[in-house]
């Protein structure tokens, strides 16, 4: 199977925010008008045959439709059986900050059956415009995130973040800093629908793309024909609740890890109780942080919070390589060498404090609003998860957000919405996805019985088959349906 890219989580932010944006697709010759849009053949390396490109303009601020505009790039793969064409499926990328056109390039070969009946459409959301133009000052972390032990530490960290946000907003020439919430993204999505000349759209949303998908359902329920949700976060329920939903899953996967280690002589903790070793390491690091020197981030210290938040890989990796590396890192760290955790943990503690990254998400109500809220969450988290319960790094990073929350978490009106189909990994994001689909009557979530995230971008045949049947025929699988690991 060809190499797949991970989307929509911590790993993307740790790597993608600091990487140069990939080149966009250039339009070539041969134009055709459709709806309100002129499409041209795309030119570029790895462009699937038949892919067409276009662009639309949308307001930076939808409350000021005649104000400054930005351009959003679009791409589509027209239906291969136009005589049986049903309509368009719009891909809603995750991240936030993933480029939907790149995702469509990646997934095209695995979606050939779906493409028989649909135009497959992708776009690069407004946060990708931000990624290409953000001021360098917005890349400077406001702090290196840590778990506050008291109200004073919480206030100090939030104040540092507030100053960084304000400096970023002042340097921003695009105006996007204040307008990357998912309600704005949803209005962009409807502008795409209008440009396609469609009365209703079908959707494939993944990961953070579930947040604009929910916003679209809130604003434009009558314009949704069908919606497939793959490993999505449920912002409607609130970020703290989503964090708590994830913890029992991580605990179960950790139990799998400890059993695997007990049965695997190559595991660096073989012959010991790996869970006991891990918990002692975390407690010790909370009392006496581990000094580390990172090639990228210099000298720092790893606390138990760093380890709980960024240490354990829930995906064992090919040949269990991730778990082998984790066990080796734990073994070294208990001897005072935290190098196995340093780059990823320190990198995330800084990336999640970068105004450039957080401006794409804080407007969706991601912050702690007070130290009391943090304390409540931490008590609940530690009760649920002895191994990983801790303050949420994303909520800490957004705690200094200087603007009103544009898209607060609140109940989603479901009247008029069609039943939706969800898919999620039982090793990871199933609980999030199911919490979303359960809001909408008669919906179904299929469990993928293995690790992974975003199945239709990972080439998983069983989930793609269910998605294709649902989108083409509006037929849902039976409740309780599962897919075996592939």
Automatic annotation (TrEMBL):
<feature type="signal peptide">
    <location>
        <begin position="1"/>
        <end position="31"/>
    </location>
</feature>
<feature type="domain" description="AB hydrolase-1">
    <location>
        <begin position="89"/>
        <end position="271"/>
    </location>
</feature>
<dbReference type="Pfam" id="PF08386">
    <property type="entry name" value="Abhydrolase_4"/>
</dbReference>
<feature type="domain" description="Peptidase S33 tripeptidyl aminopeptidase-like C-terminal">
    <location>
        <begin position="387"/>
        <end position="483"/>
    </location>
</feature>
<dbReference type="Pfam" id="PF00561">
    <property type="entry name" value="Abhydrolase_1"/>
</dbReference>
<dbReference type="InterPro" id="IPR029058">
    <property type="entry name" value="AB_hydrolase_fold"/>
</dbReference>
<dbReference type="GO" id="GO:0016787">
    <property type="term" value="F:hydrolase activity"/>
</dbReference>
<dbReference type="InterPro" id="IPR000073">
    <property type="entry name" value="AB_hydrolase_1"/>
</dbReference>
<dbReference type="InterPro" id="IPR013595">
    <property type="entry name" value="Pept_S33_TAP-like_C"/>
</dbReference>
<protein>
    <submittedName>
        <fullName>Alpha/beta fold hydrolase</fullName>
    </submittedName>
</protein>
<keyword id="KW-0732">Signal</keyword>
<keyword id="KW-0378">Hydrolase</keyword>
């Amino acid at each position: 199977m060809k190499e797949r890219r991970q989307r929509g989580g911590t790993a993307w932010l740790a790597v993608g925010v600091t990487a140069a944006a990939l080149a966009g697709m250039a339009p070539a010759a041969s134009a055709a008008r459709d709806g309100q849009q002129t499409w041209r053949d795309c030119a570029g390396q790895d462009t699937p045959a038949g892919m067409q490109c276009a662009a639309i303009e949308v307001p930076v601020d939808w409350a000021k439709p005649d104000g400054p505009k930005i351009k959003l790039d679009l791409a589509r793969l027209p239906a291969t059986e136009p005589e049986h064409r049903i309509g368009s499926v719009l891909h809603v990328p995750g991240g936030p900050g993933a480029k939907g056109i790149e995702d469509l390039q990646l997934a095209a070969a695995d979606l050939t059956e779906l493409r028989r009946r649909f135009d497959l459409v992708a776009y690069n959301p407004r946060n990708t415009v931000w990624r290409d133009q953000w001021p360098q000052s917005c890349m400077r972390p406001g702090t290196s995130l840590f778990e506050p032990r008291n109200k004073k530490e919480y206030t100090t960290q939030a104040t540092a973040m507030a100053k960084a946000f304000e400096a970023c907003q002042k340097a921003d020439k695009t105006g996007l800093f204040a307008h990357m919430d998912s309600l704005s993204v949803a209005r962009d999505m409807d502008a795409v629908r209008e440009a396609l000349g469609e009365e209703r759209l079908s959707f494939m949303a993944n990961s953070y793309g579930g947040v604009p998908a929910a916003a679209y359902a809130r604003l434009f329920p009558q314009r949704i024909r069908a919606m497939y949700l793959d490993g999505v976060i449920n912002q409607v329920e609130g970020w703290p609740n989503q964090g708590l939903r994830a913890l029992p899953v991580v605990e179960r996967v950790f139990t799998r890890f400890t059993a695997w280690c007990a049965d695997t002589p190559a595991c660096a903790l073989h012959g010991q109780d790996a869970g006991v070793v891990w918990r002692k390491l975390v407690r010790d690091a909370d009392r006496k942080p581990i000094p580390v020197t990172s090639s990228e981030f210099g000298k720092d210290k790893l606390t138990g919070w760093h380890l709980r938040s960024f240490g354990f890989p829930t995906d064992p990796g090919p040949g269990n390589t991730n778990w082998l590396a984790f066990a080796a890192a734990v073994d070294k760290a208990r001897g005072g060498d935290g190098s196995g955790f340093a780059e990823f943990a320190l990198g995330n503690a800084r990336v999640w404090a970068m105004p450039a990254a957080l401006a794409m998400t804080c407007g969706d109500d991601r912050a702690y609003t007070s130290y009391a809220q943090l304390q409540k969450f931490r008590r609940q988290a530690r009760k649920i998860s002895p191994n990983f319960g801790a303050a949420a790094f994303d909520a800490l990073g957004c705690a200094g957000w200087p603007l009103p929350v544009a898209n607060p978490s609140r109940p989603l009106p479901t009247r008029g919405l069609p039943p939706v189909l969800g898919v999620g990994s039982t090793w990871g994001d199933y609980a999030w996805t199911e919490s979303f689909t359960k809001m909408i009557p008669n919906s179904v979530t299929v469990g993928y019985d293995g690790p992974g995230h975003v199945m239709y971008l990972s080439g998983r045949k069983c989930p793609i088959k269910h998605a294709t049947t649902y989108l083409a025929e509006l037929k849902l699988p039976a409740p309780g349906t599962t897919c075996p690991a592939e």
